Amino acid sequence: MSRFEFSNNFDEQTKVLRSFAFSLTKNDEAAHDLFQETAYRAFSNKEKFRPGTNFRAWLMTIMKNIFINNYRRRKRYNTISDHTSNLYYLNSGEDDIFNKGEVTMFMEELFEIIDELPESLREPFQMYYEGFKYHEIADKLDLPLGTVKSRIYFARKELKEKIKVQYNNIYELNSRAS
Length: 178
What we know:
One of its GO terms (molecular function) is DNA binding. By secondary structure, the protein is mainly alpha-helical. The protein contains eight helices and no strands.
């Protein structure tokens, strides 16, 4: 493949590559950097592309591998090593200890609100919350896929309303007490 053909093929894939980069990074600047790095690596390794294979897949594999390598590199650099005998550096943080009591209470209240949902909405919603896919819920409950999706949607909608009502009332009580 000539440099001109390679360049034209790359230009055709630009839009797809940019959107794929954004889907990986969730950040415009990081996506642009990832795209640039992919372009550089693709052009510097163009002789490794085998004509007759999927050019887009080759480019996306390069991009995904660059993303994974960068992620692993960042993760490694963020790891703190403390070689002192009593782990002084790790144990001397000035951060406050986070008490999860409020979160636990909120989750208990949330589960109580979920328990108040009608059975037809609660069961698919709980299964979805536990990680089941829509089609798995439909199979287990012997319901059409669209019904499962709509019941989960209506359960979410009802939960939002109940939470809004409950926590607006608490907010109003707290602001009156102040």
